[in-house]
Amino acid sequence: MTLATCTAEGKPSARIVLLKELNKEGLVFFTNYQGHKAKDILSNPYAAAILFWADLERQVRVEGQVKKATAERSDSYFKSRPQLSKLGTWASPQSSVIPNRKYLEQLMTMFNEKFKDKETERPANWGGYIIKPTLVEFWQGRESRLHDRIQYRLGNSDGWIIERLAP
Ligand SMILES: Cc1cc2nc3c(=O)[nH]c(=O)nc-3n(C[C@H](O)[C@H](O)[C@H](O)COP(=O)(O)O)c2cc1C
């Protein structure tokens, strides 16, 4: 999904992340807790996300508040990752400027050596975030540009308010 975050000053940025889980709490993705998006979320814990299926002419828009997943949730997902992905997590200071590719490869070799005889645990600076939606819009492309847009908006006490929007 495309994930948009914003600095406290209102400067937006967007990138793709993998939507790893959709559950009662919200949309779960995993990332580095020190990268650009993490800094945004720390000072402004709101995000918007987009899922788009070109062939089906479908879009889902989500907006909501973001919080960190529990350490247990992050640990269990980290454990399920392939070994090279685990090492890559250790080796990448996400969003930092680095001198060259060799630098990354050397870090990878170093962490491969470090975890040679023991389990590769989750680095403390990597884990999940959950977007708890307050707004979800389903967009379906239709003929003559008369597309369907159905919005679910979380009301104060009435639960979800469902409305149709003009395309
Ligand atoms: C298909 C695809 C999937 C990606 N999945 C993730 C992901 O799940 N988590 C992540 O941190 N970055 C993922 N990335 C990389 C991000 O787009 C981005 O480069 C990175 O998270 C750094 O973003 P930031 O500097 O805004 O924090 C993915 C990129 C692509 C193209």
List the helices and strands and how they pair.
Blueprint: E1 2-6, E2 12-16, E3 21-23, E4 26-32, H1 36-43, E5 46-53, E6 58-68, H2 71-80, H3 83-91, H4 101-114, E7 126-140, E8 148-154, E9 160-164
Antiparallel strand pairs: 1-2, 1-5, 3-4, 4-7, 5-6, 6-7, 7-8, 8-9
Helix pairs in contact: 3-4
The structure holds flavin mononucleotide.
The site of flavin mononucleotide (FMN) has 14 residues, from strand 2, strand 4 and helix 1.
Explained architecture:
- With 167 residues, the chain is α+β, with helices and mostly antiparallel strands.
- It has one domain (2-79, 125-164): Electron Transport, Fmn-binding Protein, Chain A (Pnp Oxidase, Chain A).
- It is 25% helix and 40% strand.
- It has 4 helices and 9 strands; from the N terminus they run ββββαββαααβββ.
- The protein has helices spanning 36-43, 71-80, 83-91, 101-114; strands spanning 2-6, 12-16, 21-23, 26-32, 46-53, 58-68, 126-140, 148-154, 160-164.
- Strands 1, 2, 3, 4, 5, 6, 7, 8 and 9 form a 9-stranded antiparallel beta sheet that branches.
- A hairpin with a 5-residue loop joins strand 1 and strand 2 (12-16).
- Helix 3 crosses helix 4.
- The longest helix has 14 residues, at 101-114.
- It is elongated.
- The two termini are 22 Å apart.
- The mean pLDDT is 97.
- Flavin mononucleotide is lined by residues 13, 15-18, 29-32, 35-37, 94-95.
- Flavin mononucleotide binds next to strand 2, strand 4 and helix 1.
